[in-house]
């Protein structure tokens, strides 16, 4: 399943997009800015679980959502702390905070959105390599699917590594194999050692079985939901 994403607002500042050096920046812009106006409620870009709700001197008030595809979305410069506690399940479009201008990097009220491969949710100690362009990433997933049941922590990724480079991402109801640790998404998942769980030492066959079982559970849920309609 490709997880469905949405842009939080229509007011996108593409003139200062991801990787931009506009405005006298000394480092590339690591996110994408939206300017709907101060006080606008910020909708989650995809379903997930709150993994961080914290203050950052540069980015101000931040909330981070872990998604079941292994990615993280970070929402910065919030006017106040998000009302959601760490571990809370979030559905796509659910308000996670309010647009503000907190933090030293804020240039007026706006939402600074980051999409990352690692649990930091922002830029992980100034390493732009852990972020991806939110505009392109979201646009490629506008027609994805939402989870069929409320998410919980056990739905979040478990990273399983196998000697020889194979990596798997497994949740309760979804599993994917990545055949090379040096491949784009595979590397990103392997690098996220602070994810919701990491397992090593299993054989390729054992991991394949776990992936198949997770996908079978997800399919059974989908079948039950379809039958009840």
From TrEMBL:
Q: Where is each M23ase beta-sheet core domain found?
A: 28-116
Recorded hits in SUPFAM superfamilies, A to Z, give: Duplicated hybrid motif (SSF51261)
Supply the CDD domains for this chain: M23_peptidase
Mind telling me which Gene3D superfamilies this protein's record contains?
Answer: Glucose Permease (Domain IIA)
Q: What is this protein called?
A: Peptidase family M23
Tell me which species this is from: Plantibacter cousiniae
């Amino acid at each position: 399943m490709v997880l469905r994403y949405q842009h939080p607002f229509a007011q996108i500042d593409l003139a200062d997009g991801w990787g931009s050096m506009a405005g006298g920046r000394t480092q590339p812009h690591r996110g994408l800015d939206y300017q709907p106006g101060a006080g606008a409620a910020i909708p989650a870009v995809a379903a997930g679980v709150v993994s961080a709700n914290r203050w950052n001197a540069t980015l101000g008030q931040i909330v981070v959502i872990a998604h079941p595809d292994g990615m993280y979305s970070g929402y910065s410069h919030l006017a106040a702390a998000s009302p959601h506690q760490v571990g809370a399940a979030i559905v796509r479009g659910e308000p996670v905070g309010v647009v503000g201008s907190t933090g030293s990097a804020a240039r007026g009220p706006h939402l600074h959105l980051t999409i990352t491969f690692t649990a930091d949710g922002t830029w992980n100690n100034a390493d732009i390599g852990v972020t991806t362009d939110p505009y392109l990433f979201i646009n490629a997933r506008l027609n994805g699917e939402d989870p069929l049941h409320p998410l919980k922590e056990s739905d979040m990724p478990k990273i399983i590594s196998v000697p020889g480079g194979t990596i798997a991402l497994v949740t309760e109801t979804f599993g994917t194999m990545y055949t090379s640790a040096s491949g784009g998404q595979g590397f990103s998942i392997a690098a996220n050692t602070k994810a919701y769980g990491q397992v090593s030492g299993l054989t390729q066959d054992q991991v394949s079985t776990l992936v198949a079982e997770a996908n079978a559970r997800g399919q059974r849920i989908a079948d039950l939901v379809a039958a009840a309609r």
